[in-house]
Write a structure and sequence with these properties.
The chain is of the alpha+beta class and 289 residues long. The chain contains 5 helices and 11 strands.
């Protein structure tokens, strides 16, 4: 995810009011320590599927892993597998294994457990902060700034005011509108329900956490980005198919992230999503930013 140039902490219009503390920090990603390297996480938002949101599990697992490394050691990558559906009726236990602690790099393995069985496993690699003489990156796509775009809530309300909207779409949109999601999203090119032409499986969104996080801990911003990373991308795979195929349910199976530089997850970040391949019941996604 790419974050545009951020103003000084508390400066400019990019910061929400400081008294509106992000629920992602105060609740979702706040784990209860039970023992050394053992934590319990609870749930804030449960999707309509009645399964745990994958981003919550990724974010909480990264919080647990980050608590086992020094302050100047930060995550640079994580690789995860979802192995069972999460049960929203019970908490999740996170068991951290200190696989390796080196002078520059450290590795942590995390297992998320419910009902005595793993529902999720991941490995996170951490690196001690150090300067690098060699730096480069792809250019950020040229897109309208978030201030010029409408958020999901406004777009949904516009659709619901359409008297010709089919009832099945009204039910689905009302269900989405009622969800208390701690993420703010602004699609760069919103797709309407009346569009019939096939489109490339590519999407771009501006995203940020709701509420204020502040400069604070770089680790927390990475954990918030991990939470956000599993939201709103599955629909990209349906763009070439005009939503002709009915999916009974869609779930994440594996998930990887790389963190290249410090950023603010409560500032707007450009989320670029594409699905290069789909088949045999499997959808492949690549998200960059």
């Amino acid at each position: 995810m790419t974050s545009p140039q951020a103003p000084e902490d508390g400066q400019g219009g990019d910061d929400p009011p400081r008294d509106l503390r992000s629920v992602l920090v105060t609740s979702v990603l706040s784990l209860e320590p039970l023992d050394e390297d053992l934590f319990r996480g609870r749930h804030y938002w449960v999707p309509a599927t009645k399964r745990l949101f994958g981003g919550q599990i990724v974010g909480q697992a990264l919080v647990a892993a980050a608590k086992s490394v020094d302050e100047d050691v930060h995550v640079h990558s994580l690789h995860c597998y979802f192995v069972r559906a999460g049960d929203p009726k019970v908490p999740v236990l996170y068991q951290v294994e200190r696989t390796r602690t080196g002078a520059s790099f450290s590795v942590r393995s995390v297992k998320a457990v419910q009902h005595g069985r793993p529902i999720f496993i991941c490995q996170a690699s951490f690196q001690k902060t150090q300067p690098s003489p060699m730096q480069h990156q792809f250019s950020m796509p040229k897109v309208p700034p978030p201030e010029e775009l409408l958020n999901y809530e406004t777009l949904i309300n516009q659709c619901l005011r359409n008297h010709n909207l089919q009832e099945k779409y009204q039910v689905g949109l009302n269900r989405i509108a009622a969800q208390d999601v701690p993420i703010e999203i602004k699609p760069v090119n919103p797709h309407t329900l009346s569009e019939l032409q096939k489109k490339e499986p590519k999407n771009m969104f501006w995203v940020r956490a709701r509420g204020y996080i502040g400069e604070g801990d770089i680790k927390m911003h990475c954990c918030v980005a991990a939470y956000i990373s599993d939201y709103a991308f599955l629909g990209t795979a349906f763009l070439p198919h005009q939503w002709q195929h009915k999916a009974h349910f869609m779930v994440s199976l594996d998930h990887s992230m790389w963190f290249h530089a410090p950023f603010r997850a409560d500032h707007w970040m450009l989320y670029e999503c594409e699905s290069p391949w789909a088949g045999f019941g499997i959808l492949v996604f690549k998200m960059t930013g």
